[in-house]
Design brief:
12 helices, TerB family tellurite resistance protein, TerB-like
Length: about 280
């Protein structure tokens, strides 16, 4: 399923407004996504689109059924199906971008998650796929929150940098997993594998474990060292760095679905408009 770029952007705006608490991070994410999925024209119609959505939000705010009215506005925006993938947003990318907006300020509200789950059902995103998306986003958010704390901690550059570098690698791994998960919807289905299914899965899991498990253990050890050097103020968060990376590792293991190199390439090409977003979260420092 595909929806037009403008309809997708309207749904993003309603999501931002649903919990009555709009943050600068959410606005910045909205603009980042808009510029990514429609780099040529977004700036030309942004204000008109936002004004129209804002009027709808203001009307909903006068009602005791505010949440339900905004859900209806999203349904109306996503009602028309666009079959032209060149100028549209796929259902999985739509949902991923909504998750990105909701977690842009460090965590999603319950109303935001309720709306996103509704959209996932409305657009036909499989429940298992949505759960994998949500877990990937939660893992990314946890790692990035730890990273931001470490960057502002009392640890020295030499102590903190190796841990930050590992966290950057984990974020990149989560991004690749998200690209593949979304790309699976767009890419042609590969032919029957030449090797037993068990061998394919085992091979993928081995690659994940090689990349994540050692790194998580290493970060836990380094976090303990930095905590000793940085003092008690930094220690509680530093001790959680390894657990955040382990969470990311488990999410990636669940999300990765081994497919051929050519299919992965086609999937990435199909996602070109959003390659730097997913939904901009990974580019934040």
């Amino acid at each position: 399923m595909f929806v037009s770029t403008k309809d997708a952007l309207s749904s993003y705006y309603y999501l931002i407004a649903v919990d009555e608490h709009v943050t600068d991070e959410e606005r910045d994410m909205f603009d980042a996504i808009g510029n990514d999925i429609d780099p040529q024209m977004f700036g030309n119609y942004r204000e008109e689109l936002v004004d129209g959505c804002r009027n709808t939000v203001n009307q909903a705010s006068l009602s005791t059924d505010r949440f339900e009215m905004l859900v209806e506005a999203v349904d109306d925006a996503l009602h028309a199906v666009d079959t032209d993938a060149q100028d549209a947003v796929s259902s999985r990318l739509l949902v991923w971008n909504m998750l990105s907006i909701s977690f842009a300020d460090g965590g999603a509200s319950e109303d935001e998650l309720k709306m996103i789950r509704h959209v996932a059902r409305h657009c036909g995103v499989d429940r298992d796929v949505f759960q994998e998306m949500e877990q990937l986003m939660r893992s990314a958010s946890a790692v990035l929150n730890e990273k931001r704390y470490l960057e502002s901690s009392n640890g020295t550059y030499a102590e903190i940098k190796p841990i930050i570098d590992e966290m950057n690698k984990r974020c990149a791994a989560i991004q690749r997993a998200a690209e593949q998960l979304i790309g699976d919807e767009l890419a042609p289905k590969p032919g029957k594998a030449k090797m037993p299914e068990k061998d394919i899965i085992d091979h993928a899991k081995e690659k994940i474990e090689e990349g994540i498990a050692p790194a998580a253990n290493w970060v836990q050890e380094q976090a303990a060292n930095v905590a000793d050097a940085a003092g008690s103020a930094a220690k509680p968060v530093l001790e959680h760095a390894g657990s955040a990376l382990n969470s990311a590792g488990h999410a990636i293991e669940g999300a990765l679905n081994p497919i051929g190199d050519e299919v992965q390439k086609q999937a990435k090409n199909a996602l070109g408009a959003a390659k730097n977003v997913f939904g901009g979260l990974f580019g934040k420092k």
